[in-house]
């Protein structure tokens, strides 16, 4: 059996006296979408920043292909094939599509004694890469990124990560600020990335979106893993209840019943 591309074992993270993550263990395989679910403050961002090399775990291990790794920073994680696409795509509104696609790794050509940015090559590659993900409206690499829709920016960022050799694609709330049509297109792109054999970690608080693309799910509550399950093992309602904390939902239901019965709930 193939080893997971990425495996986190008993990851703990604290900042001074504040414990943020508690014994987080996760794994994701090639061609699989792991959905990391949780409400605001659940610890999702800290998990992905630890995996992406922004934070070092206080304890625990990160493995890639069965080998324990220690990232010295985000560039080190990126060099090992871990790419993170944030909510607004991490693109640059005042840059052209071609320039934004290759920022930091610009193709160059000779101009006398100088190496200058090869705009033609960059534009051709960027447009082709984005169109392969179904964004056929983009046909000009000189177009400014700021003129793209939110879904198109996400597609540009994902296409860039794949082109630059990402093996693990971390998507941080990629559909949070999008309309229904654009969100649906981003979800199709996630499925395409899975079909290409990438390991995808999809961070969201939208259960419907998670169930649409996910193979494997983990729910975080207050920095701890509350549940870990495969597709089909839990219903949408069960997942929503888990994300809400289960006990908190039960307390709310009891309070509603007490109001219905004409009782005054006791203050905590």
Automatic annotation (TrEMBL):
Record Gene3D superfamilies: P-loop containing nucleotide triphosphate hydrolases
Q: Does the keyword ATP-binding apply?
A: yes
Drop me one GO molecular function for this one: ATP binding
Say which domain of life the source belongs to. Answer: Bacteria
Name the coiled-coil region(s).
Answer: none
> By its UniProt entry, which Pfam families does this protein fall under?
ABC_tran
The record's annotation in CDD domains points to: ABC_Carb_Monos_I
Q: Which residues form the ABC transporter domain?
A: 6-247
Which InterPro entries did the record assign? AAA+_ATPase, ABC_carbohydrate_import_ATPase, ABC_transporter-like_ATP-bd, ABC_transporter-like_CS, P-loop_NTPase
Q: Which UniProt keywords apply?
A: ATP-binding, Nucleotide-binding
The family annotation for this protein states: Belongs to the ABC transporter superfamily.
Q: What is this protein called?
A: Sugar ABC transporter ATP-binding protein
Q: To which species is this protein native?
A: Devosia nanyangense
